[in-house]
From TrEMBL, chains A, B, C, D:
The name this protein goes by in its record: Cupin 2 conserved barrel domain protein
Organism field: Pseudofrankia inefficax (strain DSM 45817 / CECT 9037 / DDB 130130 / EuI1c) (Frankia inefficax)
InterPro entries per UniProt: ChrR-like_cupin_dom, RmlC-like_jellyroll, RmlC_Cupin_sf
Domain ChrR-like cupin, residue spans: 18-114
Database matches in Pfam families: Cupin_7
Amino acid sequence: MLDSQNTSSRNTPLATHIGADDLPFVEIGGGNKLKVIHVRAAEGLWIVENIFQAGYEVATHRHTGPVFGYTVAGAWKYKEYDYVNRAGSYLHEPAGSVHTLHCVEDDTRVWFQMYGANLNLTVDGRIESVTDGAAALDAYLALCQAQGFGRPNVLVG
Amino acid sequence: MLDSQNTSSRNTPLATHIGADDLPFVEIGGGNKLKVIHVRAAEGLWIVENIFQAGYEVATHRHTGPVFGYTVAGAWKYKEYDYVNRAGSYLHEPAGSVHTLHCVEDDTRVWFQMYGANLNLTVDGRIESVTDGAAALDAYLALCQAQGFGRPNVLVG
Amino acid sequence: MLDSQNTSSRNTPLATHIGADDLPFVEIGGGNKLKVIHVRAAEGLWIVENIFQAGYEVATHRHTGPVFGYTVAGAWKYKEYDYVNRAGSYLHEPAGSVHTLHCVEDDTRVWFQMYGANLNLTVDGRIESVTDGAAALDAYLALCQAQGFGRPNVLVG
Amino acid sequence: MLDSQNTSSRNTPLATHIGADDLPFVEIGGGNKLKVIHVRAAEGLWIVENIFQAGYEVATHRHTGPVFGYTVAGAWKYKEYDYVNRAGSYLHEPAGSVHTLHCVEDDTRVWFQMYGANLNLTVDGRIESVTDGAAALDAYLALCQAQGFGRPNVLVG
């Protein structure tokens, strides 16, 4: 009694499309850029797109949930690994993994679908700060405002 | 007593990198191609990359879990919506959403990170078949074998 | 710049408590009862509590996402397995698993945390109907209305 | 070609049952007890059952993923909220939520299905330590060994 074979319900939920130009990339220093696309805070989900320039580094961090990385252009690596992430590559970072991002080529482009938080570590492995979807969204909205983009329509929920 | 501030454990799990050429694209007819990259069957997770040619269609289907689509090249749409998915766009398909894929431009490239199953529907909305990560993996491995690619190292688990 | 060590933010999200009597159990026939507690439809999440009577059966179904079962009282089993689920036991049903619920003792009580849909199968393994969180919620709300419970405050989202 | 309507595949994955006595409760001090039931580390999932005695406290912590709490017996609360969790209640703690557990009645019993990590906080809101599924499993196995239970068969993966 709890089921329905007919799937063409009037209540069918809708997909949400966010075009390449629907949300701005904000400058985060040195020509590196960030776009926060989708945050479902209760679930711990956050999806961002980055453009990195050669030499850019992200502090060593440990993830508390799984991360799925899709590289579209350029080249970047984690210092802890030999391989280089290039266009068309996929990266799976399990919960608990630790790494230090280093960008190898200009205009590297990557989507990260992340769950949980980044625990940003000092060189001796202590937690210096925490980044999660809610914090990333706040920072993005503030940078959008400061850089003249107004309030973009990030998918929330 | 259950915690540890020191995060540089010898047990740190490793990220898994799958380069663009590490897994083959198999032909699925008409120049359309499929690569199955990652399947975590117990969780219902499956990640694929597709190359579609203009005119390619995927039967109307309903998703039982959320889907996250990242378009890298070309143009495609769902017949149920006006927008066209192009390079750099993001698509969120909530669990329960229903749509019919139609490819608009040749060499369209999309990553889909999917949870759950596709319920493939007849024109009157009844379920004709089901596709999930385990089935996609089986099909991919069979096609790899048939097309001379041997047994590729799909990330499983 | 995207992080914050200070975690006592004014934006801290709140936990939601649903007391044992905050939502009614509805009768679903033969003294068997259902409570729908939490539905996050976009993610495919649905959490229910059931009270089953001896002899109650649920049609054979396949799950498209993982299910986590917590048995509080009584005894029930899946016909496909020998073990009996009793108070204090845990059951993990991976995506793709198939089974036929049979209740062994009166007043069996189980929480199910489910992702995705139940594909209800005929004896020859074809899909007869589909139950998901949205459908369960609709049915529950209708039964609440019909049984004089008004509109209960199920956690949605 | 990627689908199958016939669901009675020989490859159907199996459910895993863990009976109430299949895993030991270990003593964690003062008559409080812990059972680690299921850890899927890559996904950040950990499921535990606790028995708490009146007066037991868990340090203030922030969750980086969602938590689902099922209370079977007794009474406990978070100091930050007025409500008391009693038998038959459900608690949803979204990612980012912060709280300090205090047990009100002896032999309180709760299942927690958790994703991500607990960031354990000092009184001024700084992170003192981190607990996640992998750490909880290590601690549980060590306590089992020390308390004469050998190596229990926790569901891993």
